[in-house]
Structure prediction request, 277 residues.
Amino acid sequence: MTILCFKKLISFLILSIIIINCIFAQSIFSVIHLNDKEDIKQGSVQYITWTRTDFKAEGTSISKGRESLNYNNQVIYDFVEDFNNDSLLSVTTTDFNQFGFVQSRTYYRQNVSGGLILENQIFKYDKNNVLNEILTLDKDAHIIQHTLIKNNEKRLPVELITYNADGTLVEYHERAEYFFEDNMYISKIYSSDEELLSSNYEILDFNVNYKFNNSDVYNKFGDLIKSYISDEGYILHKYKYDELYNWIEYHVYELTFSKKGKKNKKLITIYKRHFEY
Prediction:
């Protein structure tokens, strides 16, 4: 998981969004953010080394990783390991075309038995460089899933339909409706027989969300520092920055209030990263 994806995942949790697909499955969210740059304010970064510590009821978990970036601050190599169990979680390699768009990805990831499996993805674009098709292949280059993407006039996905290798539909498909004035879109997940499974509002562009009127609070760098989850509490985000104003430490807290007004502050996650410019 890249650092940018982690910060977006935090926003997902704030909005109580249910993500039902894994990293190798497709979603409108993953398509919208496929070609995003890493979360870097200034400078050209060659490598990022990071550590993420999650504080959970069942104990503390630590993961570590290293990313290699291209000239456009896009991640081309991502290595993640489980520090608690001294094991490799995933390795992701991404290739870009001449226009700076992702054209293929190779994933090595750990399966439930502890071994590593390999999957590849090929991303296809139309003549206007709009993503309209994704192929997922196994280690033997056999197609195991085929995703078709319907886009609107603003080059944004409005429907994703995924087929298995035998041509049957996967268990769900997704549609989206956009509300540009609020920097939001609504994602609707349907079963194969068109039953609505979930409907969630999601942020369209995280980089400019501070410009829109909402209940969240941002600092002068455009980073989220306070987000409300209910009338009884909110999520607090704290940062430390380097000399180029790129954050190098990121703390996430949950603050809740009892019926008597007592405040409870709980540390959820600490994320640290080191840059090699």
Notes: Residues 210 and 222 are 6 Å apart (CA to CA). The chain has one domain: 3-276. Residues 3-14 form the longest helix (12 residues). The helical segments are 3-14, 28-32.
